[in-house]
Amino acid sequence: MKFTTPEFNKNGFNCPLCGTYAHMTWTNLVNQGYLTKYHESICSYCNEKSLWRVNGYSQSSSGQNVAEAILLFPDNGLAALPEDDMPSDVKADYIEAAKIFSKSPRGSAALLRLALQKLCKHLGENGKNINTDIRSLASKNILPPMVVKVADTVRITGNNAVHPGTMTDEDFDQVASKMFDLLNFIVKKGISEPKELEDLYQLTPEGPRKDAESKDAKFKANNS
């Protein structure tokens, strides 16, 4: 499902608290009868409130407009929530990267590259070379081949994040923001979907299941 980044005064986006795409109701907070720079967005799905602060205004023919606003709470940045099946050590790097993304896309990219290395280890690779690991996972049909091209961008961005290269700050803003989606996608394909299939398989009757396992064993023996 496409992730819609939370944005100040926008009618709908993926809630930073529950992760669901939902309509948002906005309220300008008042202190002693005066409007403040603080605003709440209320998610129509979970009914929880996010806190925003306006940092700057601009003038136009229609009056004063908000030029800049930041999300104060929850303090998890503007990235999609990590997948439920994401390993805990990978999730820790993911969340830290999300928290610093708006302040340092370069640092966020480096953390996400580290998270990808750890994720490759969880999927059975050695975790030393992302380029090799991703291609190995694709060759084993654990991941779709197209992931190789996308992951190459993650690897390059991560390297440049640690050793400055030719990428501009705008490049980091655009590419690093997609790295969150890539990590979630790999978790979904490499961990969540196989687990769902295994659960479904275990629900089948024992007889047909053993028959299928016997046929699979014979096939592997004949092709070894």
What can you tell me about this protein's structure?
The structure is a single chain. This protein is α+β, with helices and mostly antiparallel strands. Helices cover 49% and strands 21% of the residues. A five-stranded antiparallel β-sheet has the order 1-2-3-4-5, with no helix packed on it. A hairpin with a 5-residue loop joins β3 and β4. α1 runs antiparallel to α2 and α4 crosses α5. The radius of gyration is 22 Å and the shape is elongated. The protein starts with 11 loop residues before the first strand and ends with a helix.
Compact summary:
49% of the residues lie in helices and 21% in strands.
What share of residues are in beta strands? 15-25%
Average pLDDT score: 83
Helicity level: 40-55%
Give the distance, in angstroms, between the N- and C-terminal Cα atoms: 40 Å
Q: Globular, elongated, flat, extended or rod-shaped: what is the shape? A: elongated
User: Major β-sheet, in short?
Assistant: 5 strands, antiparallel
How would you classify the helix and strand content by structural class? alpha+beta
E-strand count: 5
Number of H/I helices: 6
- The ordered H/E elements are EEEEEHHHHHH
Low-confidence stretches: none
Radius of gyration, CA atoms, in whole angstroms: 22 Å
Strand order of the largest sheet: 1-2-3-4-5
Can you give keywords for this protein?
alpha+beta, 6 helices, 224 residues, 21% strand, five-stranded antiparallel sheet
